[in-house]
Amino acid sequence: MLKAASTPTEETSLQQENGQAPKPWRNRPYHRLWLTGQARTLFDTFQFASVNPLGGFYELDDDGQPIKDENGSGTRNLHATSRLIFSFCVAKALGHPGADEVIDHGMDYLWSGHRDPENGGYFWGVGDDGPVDPSKQAYGHAFVLLAAASAKRVGHPDADRLLADIVPLLKERFWEERHGAVAEEFTANWQPLGAPYRGQNSNMHLTEALMAGYEATGDETLLRMAESIADLLIRRITGANDWRLPEHFNENWELDLAYKGSEMFRPAGSTPGHWLEWSRLLAQLWVAGSRRHDWMMEAASTLFHNAVRDGWDPEYGGFFYTVGFDGRPLNTEKMWWPACEGIGAAAFLHDLTGDAFFEDWYQRIWNFTTAHVLERPNGRWIPQIDRELEVNTSLFSGQPDIYHSLQACLIPLFPAKGSLLDCALAEANAG
């Protein structure tokens, strides 16, 4: 089995030694066309294969075909529905034909399929005959806000209705002012679900969604909520933990180092992919907050450096799925999404700082991804490979929704001035 290259870009190093300053990849015309082509393949695949005529979206198999149950349909999960809406709002901003129909389809199903008309909130999993998993998850509700805010930015007629529903719901049902973050999960009628648990993942994605909500509405309380979550999870908790991001907590936001839940969504240890995701979100939050909080950029850089130090496999390349709090790998599988988040973070941070370290890692991660994650010739993103870079399906299979991979392709095309959608719309409206 081929191992990953040990150096990011020998070409760049040689040119720097000779006093030259090569353009970053994302500023080179060919690379920009290549990125656009990858994004177009993602849009085309999901636009024509994922739309379920009974409402919502199909998951796709390895060949890009709908995964159906015995009734010819399948369960629709709240985060996947919402993330496809967001993705095709970006598609619309870019001028991708047919994006409107996908947005309409998803927005209709969020309201008529996922929404609980009796108790309020949004069911996590829904089938043809109603809820399959009626729980109310902060993770899923964060993506509903992202979908609503994105739909408003592209002028969808139902966006204000959805925003008017989801924003008060998040504030009244999930937000815990004493902690400055959200609770995790409830039953359909809003009773606590299971043992008391607080998680960083749902709060991280809510930070992203709150920034989108702020961009869409100008409501500064949403920005302050995002800053509050970042302050709790990153400045205070992660900063006190040698800058290794903890994932799992009790109801008082005390670390639960022994916790082990779902290996897919709540694995033991820490997830370097989330360090990378936070590094970009912190930099974006710093920009959104008028660059008031200098600690955010320092933390963003530190998280990125630590992620590539602890999380990158020095022998085979790629990011380990989880590491312990001593920095040693726990789950050595490599998923597609940490590579995506590393690409986006490296591009964003290089644009803000000009530090060649981030450009080198941008190139290194793309080189690894094209060699081992992007399947040719169909452009499928392989969701999971093992340590020695063989395809594995212990946690993920088929074709994952395009939320992570799309952002890896498109974030590098824009300056680090806001969210992907905000930058796409700014370019569309320029001149």
TrEMBL record:
Organism: Faunimonas pinastri
Record GO terms (molecular function): isomerase activity
BP-aspect Gene Ontology terms: carbohydrate metabolic process
Pfam families to which the protein is assigned, alphabetical: GlcNAc_2-epim
Keyword flag Isomerase: yes
Family: Belongs to the N-acylglucosamine 2-epimerase family.
Gene3D superfamilies according to UniProt: 1.50.10.10
Keyword Endoplasmic reticulum: no
Biased composition (Polar residues): 1-19
This protein's UniProt keywords: Isomerase
Protein name: Mannose or cellobiose epimerase, N-acyl-D-glucosamine 2-epimerase family
Ranges where the record places region Disordered: 1-25
